[in-house]
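Example 3.2
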Amino acid sequence: MHLSREQLLSLLPRLRKVHFIGITSPFCSFSARFLQQKEITVTASEANQESDAAKRWIAEKVLYVGGHSAEYITDDIDLVIFPNGIIPGNPEVQETENKKRPYVLVQELLGAISTQFKTIAIAGTHGKTTTTSLITWLLHKIIGTPNFIVGDAKDTIAEINTNWEIHPESPYLVLEACEYKKQFLSRAPEPFISVITHIDLDHTDYYPTQESYNAAFTEFLHPTQSHVIIDAQRKNESAALQKYKGKATILDIASLRQTVGKIESPLLFGHHNQENLLRAYAVGTVLGLTDADIRNALATFPGVSARFEYKGITKKGTLVYKDFAHNPQKVEACLQGAKEAFPEKKLVVIYQPHNYERTATFKDALVESLKLADVIIFPNIYSVRESDADKQLISNQEFADAIQKRFPKKTFFSTNDTPPYEKTRELAMKQSDDQTLLLLVSAGDIDKIIPELLT
């Protein structure tokens, strides 16, 4: 029995035992820990038990050893937490429905929890993770570490060394709010502050047009209580604001940009990161922090894993970086930042597009986003949770042909490689020396070659 938000809010104070189908994502882990601190018993199942998060939950005797099983849905469970959607064929999902046990999706539980804090929700096509991390760091340095949830399992804030934490003494929850399938409406149903990075069309498997994408952001902004932080001069952001009927104050980044100027943060390169810093600065002003305190805090930001993350140096003296970028704007910004940070280096880019549907939809833009690379190495299109029909939308060869056609004079290699990506690794080493920056751009699994690159 799927609970409405009102039913969930009514049930929360009476919960005694909750079961999570999947617990290792930062959103699930945060929610589970929150319930535990309310003295609610938590159990969980997880298919992949090799991650550090899974091992920690096993050690706490929360996560059952093994995969999923219908026997975990016991009669004393008051609420079952499904992942982002119903999983066809999952025995625990089926048993929950057979027993007519109450259930909600994890984003719905998190949304109910978020209403108990002054939630600062960061949404947008790109820049969410870095901006969320910057705002978390800002509060950590000046006010005290807030409750926070950043990105996915690969993202952690350096020095804090985690992607989620609960601090009951803090009134704030800093939350990355994903727009995919309108999840941000559930994750942050009543934001105290809404921060918009960019509204550039993505997730076209769900949003057929830019207009439908804009409309989702308008819907997200409506219930904001205090401030909406957004660049009101940009086309899509302006379109989203035109239909905004909420009561929050609009803080226009475009006007703030003129007065604030450059914000120093030594580990963040490129124009796109100045935009992320500016949004974090804006949150600081809304919270009443001084210009000096904000700048001093942001100047010490230690960075985010998987976001232009330094991985090491090869025996040949090649610098190796990794970035999670997976849409055209992120890829272009990543390469621009690399060129600004190391203008004297030859930029060798190993680019692994993420998902066939996105690669087909944004093929030309993705190809164009590679224009600053001196050498391009393309192993394959990484795919996860896609249908056979999606996989027919474009082939590795078609994408390789598009790159060659656009950049006939660039050094380009298409390896048509598969794990463990030996051909890609060998080729990257041949193209590298002490005057090279090797940048792996992928939300997939090409980073498997990094340990061997560095040995």
